[in-house]
Amino acid sequence: MKKKVQTGSLNWDQLPDSLADFNKRPAKPYLTNKTFLPDPVIVKTALPKPLPGTTAALLQFSEEEGLPGAKLRPPS
Prior knowledge:
Layout: E1 49-50, E2 59-60
Antiparallel strand pairs: 1-2
């Protein structure tokens, strides 16, 4: 570093207020969408195995271990 790091204490009682005053903003309604998800699919799988070409810290969870494929359910 080119300069020595400066240290100091932080006085929580003298911090400046926020520049944004949310009480002065005009209120607008939020638009929401509801999406209902299907019930989860519970399947028995084999133990995960290490992902090929990596360390044992990366595990593979795929159809090979018994997980369902992308086309488990037809689109509704």
